[in-house]
Design a protein that fits this description.
Layout (H helix, E strand, L loop, with lengths): L17 E3 L12 E7 L19 E3 L2 E3 L8 E10 L15 E12 L5 E13 L2 H5 L4 E10 L2 E11 L5 E11 L8 E2 L3 E8 L12 E2 L2 E5 L4 E3 L4 E9 L10 E10 L2 E12 L5 E8 L6 E11 L5 E11 L4 H8 L10 H8 L5 H9 L2 H14 L2 E3 L6 E3 H15 L12 H9 L4 E5 L8 E6 L6 E6 L6 E5 L8 H8 L2 H4 L11
Parallel strand pairs: 1-8, 2-7, 15-21
Antiparallel strand pairs: 1-2, 3-5, 4-5, 5-8, 6-7, 6-9, 9-10, 11-16, 12-14, 12-16, 13-14, 16-19, 17-18, 17-20, 20-21, 22-23, 24-25, 25-26, 26-27
Helix pairs in contact: 6-7
């Protein structure tokens, strides 16, 4: 068994918390891994209370994707979650063991865009305490994670937790998980993981591997990316893929870290070089946030190959909040209205593809005050935006998510602000994200391509994008009003895509 000691502030605003770790079970009924809880220090004013058996368990959960190309077409998705130890009921087993135990069952259920169950993963673990008073102490959090290998697509997930002793339950819903195909050629970054603490994994082979270990690090995750002003440090973990490690290639990757606020670089956190250990690399970094003001921030990470000068950018959001608001803010942050944080121009961009031509012309002619009034009235009259050519409708929240995703993944500039204008961005803002994606990054013949499938739309919509001129553009769709290509249409109706996936029609520049 293993004990990891660190100081965290989460529900009770102190810097002394205990972390409970657990290991994976291959079969729930065959193995139970005991995990010890270790308290860093005593809470200054210990609050002793029995768990409220009339309410559900409090579960905080998130999702992180790791598009490692070694997994071929699948992407690893981790679902970190945290629990409050005082909400669980403990018991003393028979025998000479004087310790108290609780048993916890956790499950993640992956859902497709129809709300249908796609896959699931479970774990079952135990937590030990020495005394009854210890089990009732407020502010002690338990951390764990669940894993799934997922095909590219758009999903949601439900993390369910059961106190096996009291039979009380709790769950957290993780909405709109966009899983993209792994990049198999160019340098690429995973999304940054924000954590309360990251420590090197013990080298002692006799110590059981922590469930929260990854690539030589033990990561205590912050599932909702909310920190308190009393927290002094933020820990960041990320992974690099497709590193060139030939004899003639450079040996180092430069990492640059910036904090973004109000669309500008708020603070540069500096840069450092790491040596390429192979085709993939994992790294962790620590940042001092003492005296930072409350509010939302963005962390931007840029990785640059010193030899090829190729680079990739990844970013994530987090919030710093006062201790008095921390418990409430964690829940509110998950449903924050990101539309309010957009500039006026971004709000105009957001509706560009869903407005009629007359509406778009009117909006473009207005002053800034007029544009604001126009958009306010538009959203009052359209709680959801319906596409007349499809069965698809989008809420304002949906469009904001698609807009942000398109800019992050489809932009052609370093500012990451023009992806919404691209063909893929337009399709996403008009029809929503794909339900299935087929991608060939480097075909042996012809051009890289992506095929987006929307199976639930009438006969099944399809959009084909090829990267023939240094950018992906739409070359075929079966949707009325979109570009149509007979050769691609016949190709998709045949078996050639299965027998010769590298064969791609040549389409001249329009």
């Amino acid at each position: 068994m293993e004990t990891i000691v660190l100081s965290i502030l989460m529900t009770v605003l102190t810097n002394a918390l205990a972390i409970n770790m657990e290991r994976t079970l291959t079969t729930i009924l065959k193995q139970i891994t005991m995990v010890l809880a270790c308290t860093v220090g005593l809470i200054s004013t210990a609050v002793i209370a029995q768990p409220d058996l009339d309410t559900g368990l409090t579960v905080y959960a998130g999702a992180t994707t790791f598009p490692d190309p070694s997994f071929d077409s699948l992407t690893l998705v981790e679902f970190p979650f945290s629990l409050s130890r005082s909400e669980f009921e403990f018991y003393r087993p028979d025998g000479t063991d004087s310790s108290l135990y609780t048993r916890i069952f956790a499950q993640v259920v992956l859902l497709n865009t129809f709300g249908e169950r796609v896959d699931s993963s479970t774990t079952y673990f135990s937590v030990r305490a020495s005394t009854r008073a210890e089990t009732m102490q407020k502010g002690i959090r338990l951390f764990n994670k669940l894993l799934l290998m997922v095909a590219p697509g758009v999903y949601s997930a439900r993390v369910e937790v059961v106190d096996v002793v009291s039979k009380r339950t709790g769950n957290a819903f993780v909405d709109k998980i966009v899983v993209v195909p792994p990049e198999k050629v160019h340098l690429s970054l995973s999304d940054p993981v924000l954590a309360y603490n990251i420590t090197p994994e013990p080298e002692d082979s006799t110590v059981p591997r922590s469930r929260l270990a990854r690539n030589g690090f033990v990561i205590i995750p912050n599932p909702v990316s909310v920190f308190s002003t009393t927290d002094t440090m933020i820990y960041v973990y990320a992974e690099l893929y497709n590193l060139e490690v030939g004899e003639d290639d450079g040996k180092e990757i430069r990492l640059d870290f910036d904090i973004i606020r109000d669309e500008m670089v708020f603070r540069s956190l500096g840069s450092r070089n790491i040596v390429k250990p192979g085709e993939t690399a994992a790294f962790a970094e620590t940042f001092d946030i003492k005296s930072w003001s409350t509010g939302p921030y963005g962390l931007r990470l840029i990785a640059t190959d010193s030899h090829t000068n190729l680079a990739d950018t990844s970013s994530t959001l987090f919030r710093i909040i006062s201790p008095q608001e921390l418990a409430v803010a964690i829940e509110e942050y998950r449903s924050e209205d990101h539309f309010k944080g957009m500039t006026l121009q971004e709000r105009c961009n957001l509706v560009h593809f869903v407005l009629t031509d007359p509406e778009r012309e009117t909006l473009n002619r207005l002053t800034d005050l007029g544009k604001k009034s126009f958009l306010d009235q538009f959203w009052k009259e359209h709680p959801s935006v319906n596409n007349p050519r499809t069965d698809i409708s989008h809420t304002q929240e949906d469009l904001v998510m698609y807009y942000r995703y398109a800019n992050d993944h489809f932009s052609s500039n370093e500012k990451k602000n023009d992806g919404w204008r691209s063909d893929r961005g337009r399709v996403m803002l008009t029809y929503g994200p794909w339900e299935e994606i087929e991608s060939r990054d480097v075909p042996v013949k012809r051009w890289p391509y992506e095929i987006w499938w929307y199976h639930s739309q009438r006969e099944g919509y399809v959009f084909v994008f090829t990267n023939q001129y240094e950018t992906y553009r739409l070359v075929h769709s079966n949707v009325d009003g979109e570009v149509f290509n007979q050769e691609w249409d016949e190709l998709l109706r045949s078996d050639i895509m299965h027998t010769e996936p590298d064969w791609v029609p040549v389409i001249d520049e329009p």
